Amino acid sequence: MGTVVGAAVAASLLSGCAGPEYTYVRDDSGDTYFKVPASWRQIDQKTLDKEIFGDAESAKAQLAKQALWTAAFDAYDEPSLVHLLQGSAGAEDKPFVFAKVQKLSEDDQNAVSLDALRLSPPIPVPVTEEQRQAIEASGFSGFELLSDEVLPIEDGVRGVHSVYNYRVGSGPVQTFDKTAYLSADGTTVSTLLIRCTPACYKKRAAEIATVVKSFKVKHLINP
Fold this sequence. Notes:
The protein is 27% helix and 35% strand. It is of the alpha+beta class. The strands form two sheets. Strands 4-5-6-10-9-8-7 form a seven-stranded antiparallel beta sheet.
């Protein structure tokens, strides 16, 4: 399930009657966190769980294992999961943010790498031509890598940040901004994905950058 931490009390006091500027979000462990503008609306968690797991019983079983945590926010006035892959036709597009924290199996822990972080769902960044062909077979096309960087290691946490374009189905090109971290003990992958059209991404670059820079993981081997 998603854990949303309301705006800090101190921020509210400083702002007087004005509302908070950001909504602060963290996973259930408190190790992964980020912030989004307060005007962005959270996607209903039950709706999000149903989309990921398929039915309520499956969602309940997975959440009971603490294997997966998710949260999503939409800058549209009427939030919709549809905006994860595509904005509204005929309207000015707005950003959509999806976050996921996934516990890795023992096999996955042994195989994890920076390239594996790039390939982490929901929208993988293909590393090889074979991977690109497999992704495009599922309805994506026109992959264009705009930037890709290995992030500085902090407290043993490794990460990558990639920005890339994809055409989803027959719709317009979408820009995806993806950050993925591997915890210091190698057991957990935390992913933040932002989607917007290229024009939207350029227009709201500063706003999106603030969200991306706020995405952090604190998971020490010996806390």
